[in-house]
Amino acid sequence: MKKGRETHVPYEDVLYEQDGGIARITINRAEVRNAVRPRTYEELTDAMARAADDPEVGVVVLAGAGEKAFCAGGDIRDQSKRVPPVGRKHMRRLFNLSTVMRMMDKPIIAKVRGFCVGGGNEINLFCDMTVASEDAKFGQTGPRVGSIPIWGACQLLARYVGERKAREMVFTCRLYSAQEALAMGLINQVVAADALDATVDALCSDILDKSPQSIRIAKLALNAGSDRDFYSAFFPSAEMLASIYGNEENLEGITAFLEKRPANFRRFRKAI
To answer: How far is CA 233 from the centre of its chain?
Structure first.
């Protein structure tokens, strides 16, 4: 498999390969279950842009390194340092990645093994299709760690799984099996772990056999309705989330996670 061209800044958190019309992008942080930090978001944005600009690429496959996770969401160690000005910069970083994924005129397939949670599941929502192994787990984590999944889940999740189920996922932060995710419409296929690569490759081949200009127009047309939902809600929600970074309630969720203890959010429900 030949490697794609090198960027001006070498990747540390992401792997990029291109061959046979397929760009394969891998979040390469297996030691932290492929949790994403600022550098990861920026490298993913660059890699997605490379795939979008490469005329030989017809489909993109996004995966996580190792067998434990597609992406476990944002790196909590990074989140512990956020205050509103840093949070606003982070929101712009998120916007850049989701925009290049939505505007790319080529399908993006998420290949999921293990955990696909929090921001990882929001990255999954920005992909066009998802194939998961039987051991995959899906869910949102925002309110469990003092945050809110305003980067896609609050806008797009209900379109895939329905309003009621989306509220359940966001409010409870429960984990769902691959079969449950399939039944609710969050993903396209569930296969045995040893069949995941071959299944995704077959799906890529199926897409590559189709007219690229037709695929291009179809993706943008399919995105039109949900683009309105996402972009109209993201900006005010992003500012609200950025404004609470570093306050006592936000830090309780982050500190509890780092200290491996249950968060005590009940203390914030008290009469004034």
So the answer is: 18
| Number of domain units in the chain | 1
Question: How confident is the model over 201-224, as a mean pLDDT?
Answer: 97
CB 12 within 8 A of CB 46: no
Residue 71 amino acid letter: C
Average pLDDT over residues 151-168: 97
Q: Name the residue with tokens 């179809």.
A: 218
Tell me whether residue 63 is in a domain.
yes
Q: What is the CATH number of the domain that holds 144?
A: 3.90.226.10
Residue 261 lies in a domain: no
DSSP per residue, 168-221: HHHHH---EEHHHHHHHTS-SEEE-GGGHHHHHHHHHHHHHTS-HHHHHHHHHH
Alpha carbon distance 230, 161 (integer Å):
16
Residue 25 reports pLDDT greater than 50: yes
Q: Is the predicted pLDDT of residue 234 greater than 90, yes or no? A: yes
Residue 2 pLDDT level (bands cut at 50, 70, 90): very low
Find out whether 106 and 58 touch, Cβ atoms under 8 Å: yes
Amino acid, res. 69: A
Q: Quote the CA–CA distance of 247 and 211 in Å, as a whole number.
A: 51
pLDDT at 4 over 80: no
